[in-house]
Write a structure and sequence with these properties.
The chain has one helix and ten strands, in the order αββββββββββ. By secondary structure, it is mostly beta strands. The strands form three sheets. Strands 5, 6, 8, 9 and 10 form a five-stranded antiparallel beta sheet that branches. Strands 1-4-7 form a three-stranded antiparallel beta sheet, with no helix packed on it. The protein has a two-stranded antiparallel sheet with strand order 2-3. It is elongated, with a radius of gyration of 21 Å.
């Protein structure tokens, strides 16, 4: 029983370190600066179907930002109102300076902030960027 309990505790510690990743604080220096020049754009491809053109239903917003010096990874936070980003990132341990959010609804505005991480911790949040997704156009068939 004790051997199993030790293994369980060791597994939990490993998962905690893995989850914290590069944002685990060592307490020796300062975390990196927040990412700058946060940009956002929409991806909503027009496709051709059997009945003519229609919009793909999967909404996507792509974020990009400038790299910060000494960064190991980035975290992305999303909210539904200005400065209302959740305390938990929607994406973490990103190594690229872009992220595509695919879990979006039609005609909604999304707000984003990004943080940078290194072995000293997590930066403050970046300036906020926002974008409203577009609803698909209404296609009307006129009877002849």
């Amino acid at each position: 029983m004790l051997k199993h309990r030790r293994r369980t505790i060791a597994s939990l510690i490993f998962l905690l370190v893995l989850t914290l990743g590069a944002c685990a604080k060592s307490g020796h220096a300062a975390p990196p600066d927040a990412p700058s020049r946060l940009g956002i754009g929409q991806y909503n491809p027009l496709t051709l179907g059997i009945n003519g053109p229609h919009f793909h239903q999967a909404k996507k917003l792509t974020l990009w930002w400038s790299a910060s010096a000494g960064v190991v990874s980035y975290n992305v936070y999303r909210g539904s109102r200005t400065l209302g980003e959740a305390p938990t990132p929607i994406a973490s341990n990103l190594t690229a300076t872009t992220y595509t959010d695919t879990r979006l609804g039609d005609g909604a505005t999304y707000y984003y902030q990004v943080t940078a991480c290194n072995s000293e911790g997590e930066s403050s949040r970046s300036m906020e960027a926002s974008e409203m997704t577009k609803a698909p156009p209404q296609i009307h068939n006129e009877a002849a």
